[in-house]
Amino acid sequence: MKLRVQYMAQLRAAVGRTEEEVELPDGNSLADLLNQLASAHRTARSHFVTDTGHARPSLLIVVNDSAVPARKAATTALHSDDIVTLLPPIAGG
After folding, report:
1. Is the entire prediction scored with pTM above 0.90?
2. CATH number of the 2-87 domain
3. Three-state secondary structure along 10-66?
């Protein structure tokens, strides 16, 4: 299946692009996608997953138009043509 991944804020700089098309085997989860992205973009790995390979809890994830908590990444099935938007936490003051 093919997905479109959009990167927001400092993730754009970390991976060097605003979006990309990613291919995954059918039946993969959001967690599988995040681990694939972590492998493909090693310098940005810590933005996607923890040291144990789980979805980074602070990562804001939207699949199509629905927010998905990082804690549900392993149980969130992805489908062909989904659009996954990733937004790291924003700090400021």
Report:
1. yes
2. 3.10.20.30
3. HHHHHHCCCEEEEECCCCCEHHHHHHHHHHHCHHHHHHHECCCCCECCCCEEEECCE
